[in-house]
Amino acid sequence: MHPASPDNANDPVRIFAIDDDSGVRDALACLFKAADYRFTGFASAEAFLNQEVQTPRGCLVLDVELPGMSGLELQKLLRNQRAHRLPTIFISSGNSDYVERAFKGGASGFFHKPFAPEDLLRCVERLV
């Protein structure tokens, strides 16, 4: 179970995952729904941007390598939008250059695929 924040304890915690691999999205959906989070998955950065995402409590789980706009490009775009306040955790099979760039861009975590689901869940719980 995830902890409740006193300021917005009644707001649902939302997890948004962007990964072009449907198997990864399905696994993340199972993981986060089992932990009582509301989950929405997207196959691309563009699909995420086309949805109106407004939630005061949540987290973005983002793959680095995506078709079209990369995860790092999306991170930069969102960072420049004042309305975006979701912490971002990257998951990727990418190299160490990606890790450095992600953290310089304000990432809250980075997990290399394959990763232990419980580690990702603990990281999200710490952030929301």
Automatic annotation (TrEMBL):
It comes from the Bacteria. PANTHER family: CHEMOTAXIS TWO-COMPONENT RESPONSE REGULATOR (PTHR44591:SF25), STRESS RESPONSE REGULATOR PROTEIN 1 (PTHR44591). It comes from Salinisphaera dokdonensis CL-ES53. Residues 14-128 form the Response regulatory domain. SUPFAM superfamilies: CheY-like. InterPro entries: Bact_response_regulator, CheY-like_superfamily, Sig_transdc_resp-reg_receiver. This is Transcriptional regulator. The modification 4-aspartylphosphate is found at residue 63. The keyword Phosphoprotein applies. PROSITE patterns: RESPONSE_REGULATORY. Pfam families: Response_reg (PF00072). Keywords: Phosphoprotein.
